[in-house]
Each structure stands twice: as C-alpha cells, then as structure tokens.
C-alpha cells in the first residue's frame, strides 16, 4: 500500500503546534494541551520531537506528560467520564458510583471500554464538593450524581453518536 504523502506526518503536525506556541512563556504545557486536543492523546513518539524543538531533554518532557493526569498516553473513547473520588464526594457515595460505573461499562477506572466508546477516569477534585458525588462527562460538570442519573447522562451521550 502506498504511503499517503498528502497528509503531514505526525512529527510535522507536532512541529506546527510547537511553532504556534514557541514564543509563549512556559510553552510546554500549552503545547501538550494543544497536541492532546488535536490528536486525542500525547503519543510517546511526540516526546523526542518536542524535546528537540524546545531544547529540553526527553526525560523533562516525559516527566511533565506523566506528572499531569490530564495527558493521556493512549486515545480516549468518544465519551470521557471522570468521577471524583476526593473525600467530600466519598462521604456522599462516590465509591458506590464508581462501582456502578465500572459494572455498567464493563471496564475499570483508568481504562476504556472494549468497544472504545467510553473512557472512565478518576479525579480527586472537580471543585464541586458541595454537590457531590460529582463527575464530568466530556468536559461538562455534573453534581449530585447517583446511578440512575449517571445512566441517563451516559445514555444521552450514546444517542448523540
């Protein structure tokens, strides 16, 4: 099968993102956020390109990517469900909600369903402590979640597909 030369390589696309942020102070984080927005994750193959372009070591770039939980090393599902497991949410049933989500989706926290549709993640504060248990679906914040409400939100997301 011939190589499609009409599409820019991943390295070229990474360099393009770097160029957009090159003058920014502390450019690595905005670059990583832009790459994740464009690709859906930060591929390990991007790290040497970023290191070379920003005059950083591969270890420095890798350290930032792995330190921040918002950066993914693999593509996420179409729907990203984040459930808060901080103390305030735990005190009002977050662990039961996590167990329900894992059972419903058939996958554990930190993984994506077998069909690739939903990624289930844990977070340790969404800033919605007074309305716990809290969660986030594709960036939208929800409070006072229970199994039935979570199911309704996930069903609505599935219908949008």
Summary keywords:
Glutaredoxin; alpha+beta
Brief digest:
Belongs to the complex I 24 kDa subunit family. Keywords: 2Fe-2S, Iron, Iron-sulfur, Metal-binding. The chain has helices at 10-21, 28-39, 46-54, 58-67, 87-90, 94-105, 147-159; strands at residues 79-84, 111-112, 118-123, 135-137, 140-142.
Within the largest sheet, what's the order of strands? Answer: 2-3-1-4-5
CATH hierarchy class name of the largest domain: Alpha Beta
Radius of gyration: 18 Å
SSE run: HHHHEHHEEEEH
CATH superfamily of the largest domain: Glutaredoxin
Total E-strand runs: 5
End-to-end CA span: 31 Å
- Give the total of domains: 2
Percent of residues in helical segments? 40-55%
* CATH topology call of the largest domain: Glutaredoxin
CATH architectural group of the largest domain: 3-Layer(aba) Sandwich
Describe it for me?
With 161 residues, this protein is of the alpha+beta class. The protein folds into 2 domains: 10-67, no CATH class; 79-159, 3-Layer(aba) Sandwich (Glutaredoxin). It has 7 helices and 5 strands, in the order H-H-H-H-E-H-H-E-E-E-E-H. A 5-stranded mixed sheet has the order 2-3-1-4-5, with helices on one face. A hairpin with a 2-residue loop joins strand 4 (135-137) and strand 5 (140-142). The longest helix has 13 residues, at 147-159. [2Fe-2S] cluster binds at residues 84, 89, 125, 129. Keywords: 2Fe-2S, Iron, Iron-sulfur, Metal-binding.
